[in-house]
Write a structure and sequence with these properties.
There is one protein chain. The chain has 125 residues and is mainly α. It has 4 helices and no strands. Helices cover 65% and strands 0% of the residues.
Length: 125
């Protein structure tokens, strides 16, 4: 089930492809098509947050973190394919701590975004 796109090579390619497609959609919204995307670029703040470097880095980090996390809990993940079938991450930590770490990361990320928005609001008034 976990094939090429669950390797670091495949996941990096998929993450970068997703980022490039996202940038294409954002660019299309700048010229007014499609109108459904306009909230992404409605303010100068939103446009400033969608940098090419940031989007590409986000796609790459997102892609590369996936085989790492899946490699910890799935025995059929081969993160270093095509060079080796060895998975050094399998069982590195238990499933419950892994899920708790992901939830904690999400909570910390949401708190960071909330603080950033609150701080940004204070500057604009």
């Amino acid at each position: 089930m976990h094939r090429f796109f669950h390797s670091f090579l495949g996941a990096a390619a998929a993450g970068l492809l997703a980022a490039v497609l996202f940038l294409g959609v954002v660019r299309a919204s700048f010229i007014g098509f499609p109108r459904a995307i306009m909230p992404l670029t409605a303010t100068s703040t939103a446009r400033g947050e969608i940098s090419v470097f940031g989007v590409l880095l986000g796609g790459l980090v997102g892609g590369l973190s996936h085989p790492l996390l899946d490699g910890i809990m799935h025995p059929d993940v081969r993160p270093f394919m095509p060079w080796t079938d060895y998975n050094p991450f399998l069982g590195l930590i238990g499933l419950a701590p892994l899920h708790l770490a992901c939830i904690a990361s999400a909570v910390l990320g949401a708190a960071g975004v909330a603080l950033w928005k609150r701080r940004s609001k204070g500057r604009s008034t």
